[in-house]
Amino acid sequence: MTRFTQAELEAARDRLVPDVVAGGLRVLFCGINPGLMTAATGHHFARPGNRFWPVLHLSGFTPRLLKPEEQGELPSYGLGITNVVARASARADELTAEEYREGGRLLREKVVRLRPRWLAVVGVTAYRVAFDERTARVGPQERLIGDTRVWVLPNPSGLNAHWTAATMAEEFARLRVAAED
């Protein structure tokens, strides 16, 4: 993996990272927003401490552990990635509630257009703010966006100490089973 200086990472601030999407996916994963490492590399969940890629594999979504730079393979598994908020930042707490709400509005439009079977938001707090669902918990939600079901997953950031890779993989696997039905 390329090592970036702090100046190079800061230069990636506010950079946009293209979605990895296609129409009719089984699951469209939705991160909070790109981190600076993701923006610098152009690859989603690129920070070394992020557990998204290992958990995706451990849960059975992918037959092998993919590297962030292999994100383009996701649509072949019926998977994609987008974000609630498009702009990159060092930490999610740099985002405003207004950005989350606007991101939720834009995400709904994207989901209606792409029609994935499931939208999986990784981060319960982001989901709560973006969709004004203050009591939402990890798991399947009552909300539908068009015909798309919604599932909230734990945030795979290394900063989320409440969940281990194993317990996250169990929750991701629950979604995988639901997405196969």
UniProtKB/TrEMBL annotation:
Pfam families associated with the record: UDG
Keywords recorded for this protein, A-Z: Activator, Chromatin regulator, DNA damage, DNA repair, Glycosidase, Hydrolase, Isopeptide bond, Transcription, Transcription regulation, Ubl conjugation
Annotated Uracil-DNA glycosylase-like domain residues: 18-179
Gene3D superfamilies: Uracil-DNA glycosylase-like domain
Database matches in SMART domains: UDG, UreE_C
Any one GO biological process: base-excision repair, AP site formation
Enzyme class: hydrolase
InterPro entries in the cross-refs: MUG/TDG, Uracil-DNA_glycosylase-like, Uracil-DNA_glycosylase-like_sf
CDD domains per record: UDG-F2_TDG_MUG
GO molecular function terms attached to this record: DNA binding; pyrimidine-specific mismatch base pair DNA N-glycosylase activity; uracil DNA N-glycosylase activity
EC number: 3.2.2.28
Protein's UniProt keywords contain Transcription: yes
NCBIfam families: PRK10201.1
Record protein name field: Double-stranded uracil-DNA glycosylase
